[in-house]
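Archive record
______________

***
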Amino acid sequence: MVRLGCHAGVWPLALLLLQLTPPVRAQQVQLRCDGTLLEARGSAEKKRTIDVLKVSMALSAEAATADGALGELQRRLAVVRQALQRLQVMELTVSSPSSWERPASSKRPAAVEANLQVSGELAPARLQALVREVGALPGVRLNPVSAQADQAGDDAVRRQLLRLAYQDALLQARQLAEAIGLGMPTPLEVQIDGGFRPIQARGMAADAVPPFDPGELPSPTDRLGMVVRFCAR
């Protein structure tokens, strides 16, 4: 999207340093634009290879008493933990348990339910085993997995997105300047629109006859947008 306006006077310039260091205070510089102000919104995105799967699950148990429900939950957790260790799950995290009394209904008697959350990181090749082996254990309810790219490449991807988003905005400004008979636009101000946004791809972990193929999960996608103001005469 490109906007334009005729201006003659002094414009503040907030040059945003396009680098990966922590944010710095922008310098205010006085710059004169004796022509037409053009504003363009550039954007870029990049799909990346899945490096690891973020997995999580709810684990529950029930019994007539709180002690019984928590004891059964502890036994089920031991089985789940062993299964996840066989799958070489990394960064394994287990929440503290909680319990609540479920009142009796026409379909089931009163009981105490206990539950907790388990999460970790898994190699994509082990998705099938996670779903069929761990997902089938008593009390386990798998949540959707999140595909994540290798964070070591974030800096390089950010630099690439910055270049692409700026080139997108510059192309729009050049085309508009040409259409209305102006010369080459000069950048005045660059503002990152929302910043670097890694988007985690999510996929359902549910029963199916074909194998669960991690290659079918949506690829992690990084997006970046910016607003650039140009001066053209």
